[in-house]
Design brief:
The chain is an alpha/beta fold. It is about 30% helix and about 10% strand. The chain folds into two domains: about 5-140, no CATH class; about 170-360, no CATH class. It has a five-stranded parallel beta sheet, with helices on one face. The chain has a three-stranded parallel beta sheet with strand order 2-1-3. Helix 13 (about 330-335) links the parallel strand 9 (about 315-320) and strand 10 (about 360). The protein is globular, with a radius of gyration of 24 Å.
Length: about 400
């Protein structure tokens, strides 16, 4: 299912259907009340709390998926929501690399979890439950290797990115421009060009103006503004839940301090001392385009790596790729960040008004661009899937995408 088309609602419907059927038919193996939901990062993991029946913003109540008299029965479902990083085998005992290799002696490392131990750790809350239904959110971004004979030859960053992927608006906020770079060095140069940089003259530090007026973080008088228009993020580090590298923290130090100050002003009762730098930047990044939050005023995001599938700002209007794109695998998630609609209000014809996003430097050819050719050719005839005539009342209809520009 495409970005923004309601995957979470579908998962809620599946969970409700299975759970209620299992409660009514406990011995029927077709149904289950036990679910393991796997996400690509902690952003989506946290956002999918709406699938927990007891969550205050539960979709079952919010979207009226289940009659009120059946709501209590949903509470019997066992649901684990985790990010795929939890499935990576962890070290049980800290030891040096040489020590590990000597003691392992060519056998599986005694210092690392076995697959069974990993599964027990991740699924501990499920106890002895069987017949578990696994939902892989964003599964369309989990690629399997092609047979060796068909393998695409990738080099450099494309190869690294592909290798990693084998494992895994309200009208009051400004539109957002995102820039995707491939490493810290490039992203720092791009960020400083856009937002400004500091120059040391004797004992004095002078702020040099950014080159793009609408995104500048300087105030024009040699000082920084208090609410940055542009931010620098490393989405891969933030999504894994690991600590950010010292190099990145050095680059983003001023940005982090500014947001800590704003956080104290916005939320007086909140203890910012307990808020880690990673927590803070994650909150800013995940609230871009959302009114009343730390990221509401951000107009430009410079990303050290690919913006993750879970980043759901619907105010993105422009995307710039400052890196090599040797495969469509890398293009899809980048362009996908700009495909969420800002408005779902129907016009007088009952249709959504068209919304457009500009993509530069991303050779995306998943579907033809509107206006990309003066002589568009139709694709192969599709296989039509439709409701049987005697069950037409159960038909599900979907909006038809005419194209994108």
């Amino acid at each position: 299912m495409a970005t923004g088309s309601g995957k979470t609602v579908v998962m809620a419907m599946l969970i409700a259907w299975h759970t209620l059927n299992k409660r009514a038919n406990p011995q029927d193996a077709r149904f289950s009340d036990t679910f393991l939901i796997v996400t690509p990062g902690i952003t989506i993991r946290d956002r999918l709390r709406v699938l927990l029946p007891n969550d205050p913003e539960s979709y079952y109540r919010q979207r009226d998926l289940v009659p009120a008299r059946l709501q209590d029965q949903l509470g019997h479902a066992k649901i684990i929501i985790t990010n795929y990083h939890a499935f990576q085998l962890r070290e049980k005992v800290a030891a040096g690399k040489i020590t590990k290799s000597i003691l392992a002696d060519g056998q599986p490392s005694p210092f690392t979890e076995t697959h069974d131990q990993m599964v027990r750790r991740v699924c501990r809350e499920l106890g002895a439950k069987k017949n578990i239904i696994v939902l892989n959110d964003e599964a369309h971004h989990c690629y399997r290797r092609k047979p060796d004979a068909e393998d695409e030859i990738l080099t450099g960053d494309d190869r690294i990115e592909a290798k990693k992927r084998e494992a895994q608006a309200r009208g009051i906020t400004p539109p957002v421009f995102i820039v995707v770079c491939n490493n810290n060095d490039v992203s720092r140069l791009v960020f400083e060009f856009i937002a400004g940089w500091e120059k040391q003259i004797g004992d004095q530090t002078i702020v040099q103006a950014g080159q793009l007026a609408i995104f500048r973080n300087d105030d024009g008088s040699g000082a920084w503004v208090h609410r940055p228009n542009a931010i620098l993020v490393d989405s891969r580090q933030l999504e894994s839940g690991e600590a950010m590298s010292d190099d990145f923290k050095k680059i983003a130090a001023r940005e982090i301090d500014e947001f800590k100050t704003e956080c104290r002003a916005r939320f007086p009762g909140r203890d910012t001392q307990d808020l880690t730098d990673e927590d803070l930047l994650r909150e800013v990044m995940n609230t871009v385009g959302k009114a009343g939050n730390l990221g509401e005023h951000v107009k430009c995001v410079v990303s050290v790596s690919m913006l993750t599938e879970g980043w759901d700002a619907n105010t993105v209007t422009h995307v710039l790729g400052v890196r090599a794109f040797g495969t469509q695998l890398l293009c899809e998630p980048v362009v996908g960040r700009a495909l969420r609609r800002m408005s779902y209000a129907a016009n007088e014809k009952g249709h959504f008004n068209p919304e457009y996003a500009e993509a530069y430097g991303v050779p995306f050819s998943f579907i033809p661009c509107s206006g990309a050719t003066t002589d568009p050719k139709p694709g192969p005839l599709p296989t039509r899937v439709r409701a049987m005539e005697n069950r037409v009342a159960c038909e599900i209809t979907f909006p038809r995408l005419l194209g994108y520009r």
